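Need residues for this backbone.
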């Protein structure tokens, strides 16, 4: 069997020149020869597609009647986000509005319809005490996690339960603001709670969410902290210097950082050190890690917005385990925006070994690391809260025993 392809090319001159290729496929066998296929260009309504390139679409649309335009609009779905939704969909509602919108009546009507609508019949009826399907059995919990949960178990008591049950909307909003539940409220409600003001009218749980105009705040004043004087005070262990803020101070040399961290090793008065946007590098950050390992009074450490690499961040988190004194550590917005799975797992394991850390300012991308860190920090907060409650109860007990009064 042999195949022979014959290709003929010819040009026809009309309004424009075009080339048409015609392919004829011939199969030759021992008995006969036959023609199988012939390929021609694609056409639309009997014309070549290239002939529609110069068609004026606006002129054609001008010739259509409004009814024909509506029919055409229903068949075409334009992918244009600048068009309003009612012009991009084929749904049309000719019904006139029955009156102004009454949100309360609408919600009542929806609730009434939901209650009156019968439930879908179940294929297998419900029987009390009978498990339908396969029952899920949770995996056994680790002994370490179970012991930690038993240690932080807190009973609110009837008094707190009654207070939460009888609380008003404003009181619950204020409580959510204190606990940091930002997703339960808008910005106006949050600031009203912090400033001890009345909540805005119409913004309760059933209120309509409205956008608020952003407030214009004056630019932040430059940091006027004297670098040389603060280094000297840290070295001299000045008891009045408990909070050192070098945020946004430009052009601090590595020698200044080395002098500061050398004085921090033997300082037992400084409690908060903030070094945001000061140009910290890996070299100076390693010096800071050595100082943190020897310092026993530092409680807050902030090194955000610098040029620290992820491995050095791990070294800083590891340095916090030496004396267990730092309660808040922030190191987000560094040179590398993504830490990576390996670095995040190392940070998570180090945080889970730290029993004093309460706040961690790092952007963790993976859910496993983020949830484990959040759960451990919450356990630390609950344990400290419970210890404070026990200390207060013990102090009140001693006070009542010394005064001879009865404890209610």
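Answer:
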């Amino acid at each position: 069997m042999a195949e022979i392809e014959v290709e003929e090319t010819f040009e026809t001159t009309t309004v424009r020149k075009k080339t048409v290729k015609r392919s004829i496929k011939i199969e030759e066998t021992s008995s006969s020869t036959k023609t199988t296929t012939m390929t021609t260009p694609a056409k639309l309504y009997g014309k070549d597609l290239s002939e529609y390139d110069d068609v004026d679409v606006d002129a054609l649309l001008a010739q259509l009647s409004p009814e024909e335009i509506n029919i055409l609009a229903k068949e075409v779905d334009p992918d244009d986000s600048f068009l309003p939704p009612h012009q991009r969909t084929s749904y049309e509602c000719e019904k006139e509005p029955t009156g102004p919108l009454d949100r309360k009546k609408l919600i009542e009507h929806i609730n009434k319809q939901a209650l009156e609508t019968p439930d879908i019949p179940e294929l297998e009826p419900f029987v009390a005490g009978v498990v339908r399907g396969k029952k899920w059995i949770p995996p056994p919990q680790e002994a370490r996690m179970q012991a930690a949960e038993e240690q932080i178990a807190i009973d609110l008591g009837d008094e707190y339960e009654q207070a939460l049950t009888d609380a008003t909307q404003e009181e619950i909003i204020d409580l959510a603001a204190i606990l940091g539940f930002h997703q339960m409220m808008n910005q106006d409600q949050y600031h009203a709670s912090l400033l001890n003001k009345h909540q805005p009218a119409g913004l309760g749980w059933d209120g309509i969410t409205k956008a608020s105009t952003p407030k214009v705040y004056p630019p932040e004043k430059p940091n006027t902290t004297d670098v040389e004087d603060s280094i000297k005070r840290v070295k001299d262990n000045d008891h009045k210097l408990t909070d050192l803020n070098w945020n946004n101070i430009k052009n601090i040399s590595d020698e200044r950082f080395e002098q500061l961290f050398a004085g921090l090793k033997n300082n037992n008065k400084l409690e908060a050190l903030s070094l945001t946007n000061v140009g910290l590098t890996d070299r100076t950050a390693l010096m800071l890690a050595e100082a943190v390992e020897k310092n026993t009074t530092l409680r807050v450490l902030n090194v955000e917005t610098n040029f620290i690499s992820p491995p050095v961040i791990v070294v800083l988190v590891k340095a916090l385990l030496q004396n267990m004194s730092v309660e808040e550590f922030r190191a987000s917005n560094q040179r590398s925006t993504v830490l990576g799975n390996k670095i995040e797992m190392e940070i998570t394991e180090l945080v889970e070994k730290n029993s004093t850390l309460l706040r961690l300012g790092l952007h963790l991308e993976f859910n496993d690391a983020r949830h484990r860190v959040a759960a451990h920090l919450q356990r630390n907060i609950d344990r400290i809260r419970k210890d404070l409650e026990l200390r207060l109860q013990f102090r009140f007990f001693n006070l009542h025993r010394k005064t001879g009064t009865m404890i209610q």
